[in-house]
Design brief:
It is built from 16 helices and six strands. α9 runs parallel beside α11 and α10 packs antiparallel against α11. Bound molecules: adenosine-5'-triphosphate (ATP) and magnesium ion (MG).
């Protein structure tokens, strides 16, 4: 980068109140100066960055103020500020490790960027409905104190048929302007529509421009796409993501964790957890959470503070019939 590009990048990160990014650019300036033979300047900048880093831990914990999308962007994305944390999710060890790795690389991105490497930030989440994909996008935004910008792909394509590529450009430009988690939900809309509609040319074009934007993107935002139908996606997509993360229906351990955390405010001594867990076989994380909530409501409405086996099994059965399982 040239001096003026550095200055612009510094200002942008200052405006976004992104201390990590600001200091990381300052370190890049130091490296740049050192290469030009300005050792003293480089040293001075490094010392100032060190000072700032040792004193800034508390400050960087504060949330980035929400940037309300303006103009065209406002019709394309919904912005929210997430309070969700990873620890509110019941996850297998493997999934937890994968998500923690993203968080660690993001939190310490300055170290990675300084060495010319890239932290992982382009993720494809794949798995059945209700398995926690949307919740993951929310948890990552919450953990990183970043605004969550949600783009519902299906709506984007249907509402802006013919102009989708130019709308995508607006979204990808926003990623550079405002660091955030950009979540493309129902991403399979692209793949699915290719076979079932006549407008194959348009869908193909949208997919191609998405791939190009994704590949070219050098912002420091997170890009997360989610789909239920991985088989419909173009294989060309996969290698453009840093991680393809697989979601599955819950195993027994995850099931128990969801039920127990949801019912934590009640007396549950009577419940045979093993039997309850077995009854939920085939239900998603979302359906299990819902069954627990329904059991809790049943107790509340009959003025009880305890949940019985019956409360829970009735609610689980209800979920099973609602989902034909
Ligand atoms: N791993 C989990 N731990 C705890 N609760 C979960 C988990 N996964 C899902 N839930 C519960 O289920 C709800 C729905 O999950 P979510 O919307 O994330 O599913 P999804 O995978 O995005 O589904 P879809 O494919 O239908 O969009 C969450 O809001 C949460 O209450
Ligand atoms: Mg979802």
């Amino acid at each position: 980068m040239t001096a003026s590009k550095h200055l612009i990048a510094l200002l942008k990160s200052h405006i976004a109140r992104d201390d990590d990014r600001f200091l990381s650019i300052a370190m890049q300036v130091a490296a740049h100066e050192a290469r030009k033979g300005h050792g003293q300047v480089a040293q001075q900048v490094r010392e100032l960055v060190d000072q700032a880093r040792s004193g800034k831990v508390e400050r960087s914990r504060q949330p980035v103020p929400i940037a309300q999308p303006k103009g065209e962007l406002a019709s394309l994305v919904a912005v929210s500020f997430s309070e969700t944390r990873l620890k509110s999710m019941a996850l297998t060890d493997e999934l937890e490790q994968q998500l923690k790795r993203v968080i660690v690389e993001q939190r310490q991105q300055h170290k990675i960027l300084e060495r010319g490497l890239q932290p992982r930030r382009k993720l494809l989440l794949v798995g059945p409905p209700g398995s926690g994909k949307t919740m993951t996008a929310s948890a990552l935004a919450g953990e990183l104190h970043l605004p969550l910008f949600t783009v519902v792909f299906d709506t984007l394509i249907t509402r802006f048929m013919g102009e989708t590529a130019s709308k995508l450009r607006v979204i990808f430009e926003a990623m550079t302007e405002t660091r955030g988690v950009y979540f493309f939900d129902e991403f399979d809309a692209i793949g699915a529509r290719r076979s079932e509609r006549n407008d194959v040319g348009e869908i193909r074009r949208v997919l191609n421009s998405y791939l190009q934007f994704l590949e070219k993107d050098e912002s420091d935002s997170l890009i997360i796409a989610a789909t239920n139908h991985v088989e419909l996606l173009d294989p060309a997509l996969f290698r453009r993501f840093d991680d393809v993360i697989q979601y599955n229906l819950p195993d027994k351990e995850v099931t128990l964790k969801i039920l127990q955390t949801r019912l934590v405010g009640f007396e549950t001594g009577e419940i045979d957890w093993q039997v309850s867990a077995e009854m939920t076989a085939g239900l998603s994380q979302a359906e299990i959470s819902r069954a627990a909530d329904e059991a809790a409501k049943r107790a509340i409405l009959t003025d009880r503070t305890n949940i019985t086996n019956d409360d829970l099994s009735v609610s689980i059965q209800e979920r099973r019939s609602a989902t034909h399982k």
